[in-house]
Amino acid sequence: MIRTSEKASGNPGAGIARYGRLQAVLDGDFDGMQENRDPQRVREVLDRGVRTLEHLALLLSPGAEPVLETLAERASAETRRQFGRTVQFYAPLYVSDHCVNQCTYCGFRADNSAGRSRLEPEALGRQTRWLTDAGYRNLLLVAGESRRHCSPAYLEQAVRIVSEEAPLVGIEVYPLEEDEYRSLHLAGAEYLTLYQETYDRETYGRVHPSGPKADFGYRLGALELGCRAGFNAITLGVLLGLAPWRRDLLAMAAQGEWLERRYPGTRVGYSLPRLRPAAGMAPPAFEITDRQYVQALLALRLWSPTAELSLSTRERQVLRDGLIPLAISKVSAGSCTAVGGYGRNDAPAEQFQISDDRTLREMMEAVRSMGLDPVLNDWVPLRGAWTHG
Amino acid sequence: MNDALTIGGVTLSSRFFTGTGKFSDLRVMEAAIRASGASVVTVALRRVDLKGTGESILDFVQKECQLMPNTSGARNAEEAVRIAKLSQAAGCGNWIKIEIIPDQKHLMPDNEETVKATRILAAAGFVVLPYMVPDLVAARKMVEAGAAAVMPLGAAIGSNRGLQSRELVRILVEELEVPVIVDAGIGKPSEAAEAMELGAAAVLVNTAVATAGDPVRMGAAFGLAVEAGRSAWKAGPGRVLSGAEASSPLTGFLFGAGAAL
Known about the structure:
heterodimer; A: 389 residues; alpha/beta; disordered C terminus; B: 261 residues; five-stranded parallel β-sheet
């Protein structure tokens, strides 16, 4: 099924102008602020309170580097105030790696010769039980883009199966229509993760050369459909390394801010994956250093104290352990990025390599040693199969 | 003179209520609750692992405390009712703090939906304590719908900003015949005392205890502050004047030596 017409799909489509100040960010209106080199301007923002996108641009600027420690202090206090001494845990559950896209950075891209599979109900049930037996209660169901091999009907069935065992289920799948999102939500999915990858249209076109994902606007409009479909939470994200990171982050924040105001019932969160090596992939064009990465997360936390900020196993142990107490509210642990990979020793093809391979138990212990409580269960399922059991 | 608070037929040993969220460790939480002397402990049903076999958050709430499950996560009356029923089925008793939050940024409760949920759950036999934005008109509807108490916010949940809603809470205290329990926003023991001096029947504090440097000591401090505030209310504070009242009134000359009487 091919959907390109805005009318037919209900997707707002290529509407950068729709999302508040996203257009202004992409037009370069914030470039001066994001390139600021004067620490004094950053200190002023910190003293007066971080509220606007302009403030965020200054916190992301090179001028904030000398005051990184102050950023860390403030961000950590905000994180504790909002989330207390707790950190949520989740695990990704890859259900299908069939993919018709050609994302140049991804191990699942259509050209890669690796065999493809999707989890059929019985295998999915086993993977889910393996995860819930290990202690996970929050599972993020992940799939590549293929309406043929991984249809919305299949996804709905998968959500039902996973939500029979896990109280909290999220989805990270290709853009769907509003009614399809609603079906998944009613089947038990509570949150929706969808990364724009980059807001830089030229880069976007280059790294997504073909497949439905090549349509920038269609992807951009999907999160809003998720809000309308009633998801409790959405996660926006950019894949750092594809384009100049400061502008990409501001663009993401501009869209997030607009969605948050327009859909107050949906909680907005952010995730900042950095490019990791995958089979047949080119090295990152715009590298973001560890120090800048930390700065970016601290800036986001200060700008949006209530936002869920998640951190995946793409990042190294030392960086994760340092960042979690400062700004992070949700972490994955013991992740496997291959379909059907949990509980197996031989590794099927992965979407990307992880950097932190600690198990859930080891990770929970690490979090405890930070003086934080690892929280596995934080949801009462109200939809889906679980409550009817 | 017995000054105990009674709600839903249960006589409570303290006017300090607390919660189970945001602690670094369940053992620290247990010790903080004990040190505070809290009589009522709220627990988000979402944090109770209904499928779990390991240690449960409920194991760390002392048996002598009244458990008050809350409907955190509910966005409308229907969801709150479902959570309340799951809570009862899970053996968490018949008290329920209704928490309906359709605003994910400021976490403001929805009074209108809360009135609806109060009516349904009170009719179903729950002891209903609705968390609300302090609004007299909505509070009266909740009382009429069967609320055993009302729980107006002092400030945004988890904000530690203190009793920002003071004037609106004062009106509830004056007008309502059910206990008014200030919930959310209280950041310091002095603010808890302030709410009690205003005539609140109790206060509920969670974040300020859980995220304190020493949660156990902070729990104890809140317990004392609530007692002090309650005593002050019972004692009847002196008048608050807009200016100083001179101890030698300006008319003293009328009574002095040589005054022509």
